[in-house]
Description:
Oligomer: single chain
Largest sheet: none
Helix content: 55-70%
Radius of gyration: 17 Å
Number of helices: 11
Order of helices and strands: HHHHHHHHHHH
Structural class: mainly alpha
Shape: globular
Number of strands: 0
Distance between the termini: 34 Å
Amino acid sequence: xxxDVASRLRAHRKILFARDSACLQPLIDAICRCxxxxxxLWALECCEEPLRRLAELAPDEPRPAEAVRLxxxxxxxxxxxPLARRAxxxxxxxxxxxxxxxxxxxxxxxxxxxxxxxxxxxxxxxPMYELTAIVRRFGEDCEAAVNSRIAEYLAALERCEVxxxxxxxxxxxxxxxxxxxxxxxxxxEKLKRKSSAP
Length: 198
């Protein structure tokens, strides 16, 4: 099993991955290089797998799917932030009603993915929670599934970088702005400065 995951399991942590998890560094680096629109496309696309699994584990729970639906509309400018934000908070609230730690983590994964519409810094929360759900599902035999999913994230991000350039896509005004700094990149730069300070 992945070392830092095993130590978090022993510590009874709810979330088993963090921004400093070694296996997430290539993904974080890739997210830092992307524009906000690419990250939004990626996060909403990556929500589909957690939603599929949630449909198996909690077929009567509509809140995570509704959060994705409204977040897509928010990204397009078809609904305003308060409506989508309420749905995202409801997806997180659904986690409390889940019967398993896997389903709980998946609800949070969807909520974090939807939150990427607001800021790039939420995007990494999706894999942190979804990979936690994978560990909860597969236990000690999780490493191949975790590595496979990370590879899928990276491939999807590459696809979304290209897809985000499609002029036919509709975007909310705040996502059309050019030259806005990537919040995840700013966060990573701040952490590097902090860690290198005497």
